[in-house]
């Protein structure tokens, strides 16, 4: 995994609201979830990196993206061990592992132990919480 430096990004609620669309704000700052199959179309065939929509931190590489059939962008692992943070989430009567951006604490999605090899994990992300940067050709 790539080594990325973690920088803490802090903004006021008003600054986040001015920076993000209402849907991006609802998902990333209020821990929302987009409807399945409604996220931006991230083509599996495109090479590049996925970044946090709030602060731009590099989170996932296209080489770890897979079609989980769930309706959300899914990855087998983050681009580095310090790209994301895990938090216990007990909302809605379930116990899950929430994934947040390590730099700005944006809610990205959840990780589940039902992914493919090599990790067996499925990082199920809200597409609205991500931006895509194509690889240079």
Automatic annotation (TrEMBL):
Protein name listed in UniProt: Peptide methionine sulfoxide reductase MsrB
Residues the entry annotates as binding Zn(2+): 52, 55, 101, 104
One of the GO biological process terms: response to oxidative stress
Coiled-coil parts of chain: none
NCBIfam families: peptide-methionine (R)-S-oxide reductase MsrB
SUPFAM superfamilies reported for this sequence: Mss4-like (SSF51316)
Annotated Gene Ontology cellular component terms: cytoplasm
Cofactor note (record): Binds 1 zinc ion per subunit. The zinc ion is important for the structural integrity of the protein.
Family recorded in the similarity comment: Belongs to the MsrB Met sulfoxide reductase family.
Keyword annotations from UniProtKB, A to Z: Metal-binding, Oxidoreductase, Zinc
Encoding gene, per UniProt annotation: msrB
Domain of life: Bacteria
Residue ranges constituting the MsrB domain according to the UniProt record: 13-135
GO function term, MF aspect, one: peptide-methionine (R)-S-oxide reductase activity
EC number(s) given by UniProt: 1.8.4.12
Reactions accelerated catalytically: L-methionyl-[protein] + [thioredoxin]-disulfide + H2O = L-methionyl-(R)-S-oxide-[protein] + [thioredoxin]-dithiol
């Amino acid at each position: 995994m790539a080594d990325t430096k973690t920088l803490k990004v802090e903004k006021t609620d008003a600054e986040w609201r001015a920076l993000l669309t209402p849907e991006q704000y609802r998902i990333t700052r209020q821990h929302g979830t987009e409807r399945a199959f409604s996220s931006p179309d991230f083509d599996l065939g495109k090479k590049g990196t996925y970044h946090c929509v709030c602060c731009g931190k590099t989170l996932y590489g296209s080489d770890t993206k897979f079609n989980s059939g769930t309706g959300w962008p899914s990855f087998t692992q983050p681009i580095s061990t310090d790209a994301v943070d895990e938090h216990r989430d007990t909302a809605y009567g379930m116990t899950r592992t929430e994934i947040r951006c390590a730099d700005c604490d944006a809610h990205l999605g959840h990780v589940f132990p039902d992914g493919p090899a090599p990790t067996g994990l499925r990082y199920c992300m809200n597409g609205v919480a991500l931006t895509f940067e194509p690889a240079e050709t």
